[in-house]
Amino acid sequence: MGKFFRFRACVLFVAATLAVCSFSLAQTAKPSPSRRAQVSYRIAGTVVNIKTSQPLARVQVAVTETKNPQNTQSMVTAEDGRFQFQVGAGKYSLQGLKRGFLTFAYEQHENFWTGIVTGAGLDTENLILRLPPTAMIGGKVTDEIGEPVRGATITIFRENHFAGVSRVETSANVATDDQGTYEADSLGTGTYFVSATAQPWYAEHPIASQANAGMPSMIDRDLDVAYPASYYKEATEADDATPIPLRPGDQVEVDFHLNPVPALRLVLHGASDPASAVPTLRKPGFEGVGVPVDGRAEQAMPGVYEMAGLAPGKYILQTNNSSNGTMQGSTEVDLANDGQELDLSAAGPAATVKMTVQLRGATDLPPRLYLGLRDEKGTVDGLSQVNEKGEVVFSGILPGTYQVAAGSSRKSYSVARLASEDGVTAGHSLSVAAGASLQVTAVLVGGASTVEGVAQRSGKPASAAMVVLVPDDPEANLELFRRDQSDLDGSFALAQVVPGTYTILAIENGWELDWAKPAIIESYRQHGQKIVVPDGRKGSIHLPAPIEVQPKL
Length: 553
Hints:
By secondary structure, the protein is mainly beta. It is about 5% helix and about 50% strand.
């Protein structure tokens, strides 16, 4: 089934949708204590290198009962890669650990894996546990004369589909050593992008501040240079970056050759609070993931800032309140000329949203309840914990339309309706105007049901299939999706399901699908099974018939 290696509490917002941390329920009948003591089963098989299919020696293999994590056995494989355990009836995780390989579970995909179910008619003695060798991206950064660039920041981005849409997110940050070399290891299979940012060690960037206005500069203008942000391969913007496919065990060399260009100054007018609002820059990246820029900002005069040492190109400028860290505003800049001016007030002020939270059918709110605002790109910003008064305040919110997402460390929630001075609206969409100060009441409904069923192929139980619970109007209800991976007996459990109408479907090797996009999931929904989770329903809901696994289109 789909579950994490370790049961960990998680705030259910990441990347753009809410993940569910759960363990599925065994569907086999629970034997009595006396019967449990008498029945013994064997979990056995071979650990192999997923790249070469060769057996792996000296792998630490562990089996853990999912209902009772303290019931764990482990052993180290010999040269033939074989492992063997004697266990009772139940469901177990099977996991392998070896230096130079990713720690992996049986048939793992993302954070989901297939549970080993013991019982009559189930083959648990010929299992193949495949471990992928770690991949690596490394290289060297040199300057215009071929000398190493030390202290350059290397950002590794990775594409993933965990949120149901293809997103590129930061995977690692490393710095070059005194030889200009870097290495990012322990990488998994996937598609990556790499960027390098640095400043020439000899660069000087004069600021035309009020103190030295009219005085000749003592700095050689030839030293006023900057390195443009560099993306592999020979690109200065993320949109032009070349993807790097990594397979198990790959070692890819990615070098950067940085050439300085005359540095530019950006003059900022209209800072409403020059004493506390400090501008910062970053390069626009993938789906909002930007690369920090080491631009120096100084106050030239009240209400005016200068940022020096910048290479030409596109930037995202933010003004932040230093007293509370909130963002006051954001705007895009295409810097092409030295001394280019920008009016900060033209972008409009940020907004504040004060939200009062209520839980439908309950008077008390759960502990450690969090709310966040998900923008149109699927990024959750302003993640905040609800206080003891049932309130949360979002500051520095930019104009736009947001979806309110909710969750706690133990349970997922959905926003049933929002109420403000403008009236009551169903759902969780919130429109925020520039400079607005909104007071909103959010009514939440919690997920209290577990939907259980069996996936099958041609009438037989199907393991390792991706099972998806799709809500009606999926585009507007990303947080209602649930996923799992079918176990060895085909069983699955979708936990913390919020009341509503859904379609359940199973897809073969669907892990790289943009399954949250309506245009993609619709063709699979036509062959799924409809289910209604009633309001107030708690406990398990069993599907009346198995779900047929569909091939990936």
